[in-house]
Amino acid sequence: MSDHASDFVLQAISFDTLEGWKDDDPSGLFEVMRSCRRQITDVKPYRTGSLGLSSEDLLPLLAAAEDFTPSSPASARGLFETHCRPFLIRRKDGNSGFVTAFYEPDIDVSERPDEIFRFPFYRRPDDLIDLDDANRPAELDKAYAFGRLHDGRVAAYPDRRAIDQGFLEGRGLEIAWAKSKVDVFFVHVQGAARLRYEDGRIGRITYAAKAGHPFSAIGKLLIERGEIDRAEISMQAIRAWLARNPERVDDVLWHNHSYIFFRDAPVADPKAGPIAAAKVPLLAGRSLAVDRMIHTFGFPFFIRGESLTHLDQGRPFRRLMLALDTGSAIVGPARGDIFTGSGDMAGERAGTVRNDADFVILIPNAAAGRFD
């Protein structure tokens, strides 16, 4: 385990003592695992996080799942029991893990701007460059993965306020226009959306890049300003506050300097989830965004949130999931974002998830020996 992982330990446990495991049905994961295997073997392996687990470590499990059709929930669990060992991620500060949730919004859009459709989704600009230790200016923090190359000089890219005030206008970067600046902002937070055009066509956009500035949660800002009680914070509460205070919307949104650029994502199957960072379609209720600096895409995690009950008809959330996405707010070894699906109902489910949870990572047998 590398230095980056020194604030937590992996504690070997058994499936027998994993509360909720025997009630779960992970059968739906097998198709997604096949997609992950194709991505790793035919395109390129996922980047290895600081925990040190690689795509190579994952392949024996994915190979076992390739031609496996579970005949029952028990047989689905059995494949994981045979090929993996569970490890509880235990933070050294004693705090439990924490989950939130995300979804794919449905947004009404127009191909052309007018008095109603005024707020654009932008493609990646050509003066936005990837930064690394070789080309990052000394004045920019290491957290900046993107910057602006202009007249041979690299600097921070203009932030949300500058872009909202017209920095990118006239460059032909608009994918489509929405009716609401707040809707556009929350698509930036979610990282993807289904676009419903006026002629009935359905499009999809997904994350392409960002301006590079750190993400700042506007919910935290509204709590600190005393506008929303900490116990009441949710996406719904934030949206309601913004609707009640239209004259203060810009001030609050511009507090988050981060700005997201998108690319068109073909809609091969409207029923399939969006394709996110792991380059495979997300499966509602079974896909997890994790900190990719620590974890590696494709690995299974069993998430147990005793206080998270509204996703499973009043029962505690106890599900096997695959790490398939990431996000700038998802930081830490036991921090995850649950994908709840597409559309308004999925948004209602996602918006109120803020719960403590245990994170158990399933490590294929050959690699598991390194963590004993």
Layout: helices, strands, pairs:
Elements: E1 8-12, H1 29-43, H2 55-66, H3 73-83, E2 84-91, E3 97-104, E4 106-110, E5 119-122, E6 128-130, E7 146-150, E8 153-155, H4 160-164, E9 174-178, H5 181-190, E10 192-197, E11 202-210, H6 218-224, H7 235-244, H8 249-253, E12 260-264, E13 287-289, E14 300-305, E15 317-325, E16 335-342, H9 344-351, E17 355-364, H10 365-368
Parallel strand pairs: 3-16, 4-10, 13-15
Antiparallel strand pairs: 1-2, 2-17, 3-17, 4-9, 5-9, 6-7, 7-8, 10-11, 11-12, 13-16, 14-15, 14-17
Helix pairs in contact: 1-2
Organism: Rhizobium ruizarguesonis
Enzyme class: lyase
EC number: 4.2.2.n1
Amino-to-carboxy terminus distance: 11 Å
Strand share of the residues? 25-35%
User: What is the average of the pLDDT values?
Assistant: 94
Write down the secondary-structure element order: EHHHEEEEEEEHEHEEHHHEEEEEHEH
Major sheet, described briefly?
A: 6 strands, mixed, barrel
Helix content: 10-25%
Helical segment tally? Answer: 10
What's the total count of β strands?
A: 17
- The side-by-side strand order for the widest beta sheet comes to 3-16-13-15-14-17
Structural class: alpha+beta
Shape by Cα distribution = globular
Using only CA atoms, what is the Rg?
Answer: 21 Å
Q: Would you identify the regions where 5 or more consecutive residues have pLDDT less than 50?
A: none
Domain Lytic transglycosylase MltA: 106-263
EC number: 4.2.2.n1
Pfam family, one: MltA
Protein name: peptidoglycan lytic exotransglycosylase
